[in-house]
Structures are given as structure tokens and as C-alpha cells.
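Hello K.,

You asked for the raw outputs rather than the summary table, so here they are, unedited. I folded two proteins back to back in the same session to keep the settings identical. This is the first:
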Amino acid sequence: MKTLILAGAVAIMTATSANALCRAPGQAPKPPQSFDRPYPPACLQVPPGRENECDPRELDRYAEEVADYIKKLDDFVFAAERYAEEASRYASCEADEARETLSN
């Protein structure tokens, strides 16, 4: 009787452990919105050959906004790469599990 219970427990653990190994990826990351992209100040919109009349503080503020936007894009790239790796591992695991099911 103990052998039968032990065999049943092993069979259940084997059947459920394969499913436990395949972990679905989390939610896909969202890219920065297009309205997050900074626009150059109007003082930079001058015809060729004319010098802009931008306040240095305005240019500094614009440079900071561009740097912040680039950081958001870099963060998105990192998150998207991590998500793609998780999705690839999940798909491979599911495929391996399906192959194992066919071979049994």
C-alpha cells in the first residue's frame, strides 16, 4: 500500500513539476510615448545663416530634456531585451515539455 501511495505521489509530482518549470514572461514593457519626446525651443528655428537668439538656460533645459528622454529609451531597450529573453525561455520550455509529452 505504501508503495502504491509513493508511486502515485511521484507520478503527480513528475506531471506537475514539468508545468512548474515553464514560467510565462511578465507583461511586455511599454515604450516612451511620443509626447515625451522633447521639441527644440522656438529660438532654434532660425533660417540658415542667421544666429539663434536662445537664452543659454533655455538650451540647457532642452539638453536636460533630451538626456531624460534618451534615458527613458535606454531603460525601455533594457526592459524589452529582458522580456524577449524571458519569452524565449518560456517558449523553449513549452516546446521541450510538448516534445517530452510526445515521447512518453
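The second followed immediately with the same parameters:
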Amino acid sequence: MRSAFIAMILVLGLVACAGVTGTSVPECDESWAGLDAVILVPDEEAEAIPVAIACMSEIDEERIRIGFEAPAGPSCHQLSLLDINESADAVSVRVGVVAVDDPLAGACPDEPVRMVTEADLQAPVGDRELLGAGA
């Protein structure tokens, strides 16, 4: 019984370590600086569309800025998924959007829309690598 408990702890530990995956993304340049950060609006009814992360930057010891592009219209999109996994060596971030189902949303651009959001981390960024996961 004790060996089964230890095996379960080891499996859970390996699963937790496997959560920090992704590819390295560049630091956000000044072209992303003028954008206002969007807030996360979870939508339990719609499945989030994963989008690629274009850039990430440390903006404070335990806070990062994440740049991404929402898909082109005709629909407008909002941030509905922000998933962050941290390890001692890396921070992995995944974002997703959903189409806004609001007839009063107005016209939406025919080209992708650049967006940024900000997120607090559990520990300082320090030397950890910032990774984009998904899309």
C-alpha cells in the first residue's frame, strides 16, 4: 500500500513537470507598448480558439505582458483563456479568444487585431524562459 502511495506521488510530480512546455517567444518591442491591456473574460459556453503568442515581456518582478493577435473578422474577439504554468526554469503561457456574440459590437476589422494582456506570476521571472504554448 505504501509503495502504491509513493508511486502515485511520483506520477503526480511528473505530470506537474510536464505542464511547462512551449516555444521561446521574442520580447515585446515598442510597437506593443501603446496597446491597452485587455482583461480576461471567461466564457463557459464557447470553446476558446487558441492563438499564438507573438511576444512577452517582464514588466515587473512578478508580472508579464503578453502580446498576441486575435483572428481577422468578420467577428470581434475577446480574451477568454489565459493559462500559465510555472517551473524553476520557465514560464509557459497559453491564450485563447472567443467570438463576441453582440450585435452592438460594431464593425470588426478584416485583418488580425493585435492585443496585449498582463498577468501576475507566483514567483519572479528572473532567469526563467518565457514560452508560448498552443496555436
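Residues 2-132 form one domain.

Happy to rerun anything if the numbers look odd on your end.

Regards,
P.
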